[in-house]
User: What shape does this take?
Amino acid sequence: MKGGKSKAKAETKLSVKKTAPAKKGKPAKDPNKPKRPPSAFFVFMEDFREEYKRKHPNSKGVAAIGKAGGDRWRSFSDAEKAPYIQKAEKRKAEYEKTLKAYNKKQSEGPKHDEDEEESDRSKSEVNDDEDDDEGSDEEEDDD
Assistant: This one.
């Protein structure tokens, strides 16, 4: 008993939380890029959530709604799923059109913006180099 409690406390003090290193290579997301369309199940869930909230006004649990919707979806036959599949296909076709237009716009437009970013970077790098030279003099004074 004596050692059990102290070991547990020692382990928690000694344990180090490991955090994932920041990824530098991942490009930032473009907020203008169209969102992917929902699948047939998510189209069904849009309708089901409203229906579930009407029948169960006091239930606010997301998990309960999701579980009930999943059970209902699994019990559906292909014929019952068909209208949701059609809606999902329409949304997918609209998405593909908007994505095509977005990609076309991206291929034409960003060339000019990238040049400006590079010139801004080079200016900041030059300024950083000058700051580093000044900082090295200050370090020598401290010694």
